[in-house]
Peptidase metallopeptidase domain-containing protein (Paucilactobacillus hokkaidonensis), 276 residues
Amino acid sequence: MSANQNVVTVDADGNITAQEPGTTTITATLTDTFGNVKTYVHDFTVDLADSSALPSYTTADEVTQILTSTTIQQLLAANGLTYSDLAPFSGKQFTSTTIYYSFNDSLLDLTTSDGQTFTEDQLVAMASDQWNKALASVGSSIVFLPADDEHTANLVFGQKDDSEIPGYAGMTYTNYNLDTMIINDPVNIVLNIDAVNSHYSETAMINVLVHEMGHALGLGHINDNTNVMWYAAADNTLLTVQDSISVLLNYELPSGTTSEATIGVNDYTPTQLAVV
């Protein structure tokens, strides 16, 4: 229990919630299996957070918005999410929110496990469409578009084989400035044709591309085997609003600001060999 519930409340499970700045005493009482009663007392102080240390971004008219604002909270609450549910992000950013993509020469067509044949640009178009719709749904201005004569590609798709990326269905190569975390060269995404060709379904192939495009946008692996940022490719992994909000935060925070530094979300490191 809390001596001053205006400062701190304690629920039936012992979870402590700060309510306002101040001091209070928290008392915990337990009875062991022999009937002995033990009491623990702890002085507790709640300080007002320094707003400069909270996740924030600056709008075009130079108004600082704290990411724990009503707008962001409503976006999370509407989807039943908290910051801890989000995919981790690295702080790496493209210089433009319009990401133009192209392809390396001499790419092989890909055959799915049920015998359908696709060119890689067909699969990338479907993966891009997923990301574009997901990002637009949270108000992000990021969009993937094919490069043309007027726009140089800052994302290039290609292919490798098992001799080059053994054990991986796809790989993302990113060059960036270590000081600013700004991406300064085209990002390269490659599919392992030995791993996916004739082995993966159409859905799984697209999911590999969606996953790698998530890495290009700065996202890390997430510990949720139904999410497309799970480390292994599968038909049942999906791009979700968690990923879109994570990208939104990655680009609205200053470049180089990581999820671990701002919202306490750490990258998930698989304990076995990743295939994506």
